[in-house]
Amino acid sequence: MPSISKIAGGALTVFLPFTFAGTHETCADTSDEISCSGSSTNTCCINSPGGLFQQVQFWDTNPSTGPSTSWTIHGLWPNNCDGTYSEDCDPSRDYTDITKLLTNAGQTSVLDYMQTYWVSDDESNEDFWDHEWKTHGTCISTLNPSCYTTYSTGEEAVDFFTTAVDLFQTLPTYTWLANAGITPSSSQTYALSDLNSALESAFGAPVILLCQDTNIVYEIYYGFNTKGPLPDGNFIPVANTGSTTNCPDTVQYPPK
Hints:
Number of strands: 9
Radius of gyration: 18 Å
Shape: globular
Helix content: 10-25%
Low-confidence stretches: 1-11
CATH topology: Ribonuclease Rh, Chain A
Order of helices and strands: EEEEHHHHHEHEEEE
């Protein structure tokens, strides 16, 4: 299971159990460097330019998706440290059968988890995963095939989905809110500041909540910098850059 530990300065680092299949051999020289710091040009070892990773989750209620006591995965997005994004960075790697890639790699438990917690409300799950990979995954520099000492086609996509799932499991949004007495309700409203405070306290950095239909909470952005290649699993919670909430001061958090 993923673990979370304190680092210098009191911040939290998330350590994921998955290991990278074959990174650039000089990564040991950059092991203390943090993405978005601008301190390295070795893009196989330090994610650049997309060094601010946003783990994005949905609270879908109309139609509802996923378990009634859990948010679901939207994606893992490499923000260029300034609020901008690169997209679809390598069309030659726009894989269209993530299910097969994960199955062939022996990651059936990850695939099963995704069928419950990484689901779409308007297209097939496979189409959703294909989109997230080609739009965002192909823009993660440390997942470039040239960064692997050995490489099989699609291996980097397997690393992307496995890492995204592991990271999601360290971010139990529903539980963190419930622990603060904030649970879904058809009638009660909540102060946005109370949701933000509960989540920041649990996560270790400010988060961004988004609303639809004016005041219904439906999405959250968690921000991270990384140390080393993405699937090394060293994620450091940080405030999001270039993204702001669209929610009013009082919000609804309806049940699924």
